[in-house]
Design goal:
209 residues, alpha/beta, Nucleotidyltransferase, domain 5, 5-stranded mixed beta sheet, 8 helices, elongated
Length: 209
Amino acid sequence: MISFKGAQYPKDLILFAVFSYVRYGVSYRDLEEIMSDLSVTVDHTTLNRWVTKYASAIPDVARMHKEPSDRSWRIDDTYNKVKGAWVYLYGAVDKHGKILDFMHSGGRNKPAATKFFARMLESNGLPRKIVINKSGANTAGIKAINKMLKGFGGPIPIEMVRRKYLNVIVEQDHRFIKRRTRPILGFKTFASAATTLTGIEVAHMIHKD
């Protein structure tokens, strides 16, 4: 559960403000005005603190309420800049477009891909196949997971498929994230980027039921 201990505002009000920011293209000052129209006085710096504190806590609760997914997965990664440096967002959906999970990483390499795939297995079970692009990191990550599964006496290895046209469905999700982050005009730290993007992903997941 998300702890609201010490909060001076009702939790429903805080969650409304956080969801409004991560779901819609509003600035903190715009959101301050919206809250004022609802007869709630809260400044933009407080709204920023709410997003930073609570947006990263919501995914753990959301994952508990996810429905079972199809065993054919689509995985891709995209990127954002934080103070001139590239950071990466891994995302995955099943073949029906249901969001499975996401992860932010400072690198696009085998350790990052392996960590994401392991996290996916933990929250979504074992897939039959995973569709990826031609990324060497993703290829190495799946091979590492298959090796780990074999070591534990797992069933047949996960099938790895490279079909760019099959990944259009997850690329569409990434385009949504890009549209939402464009008004933000960049992030100052990796932590703020990860927190905000996590909130945006969860809001998108909720919107897609």
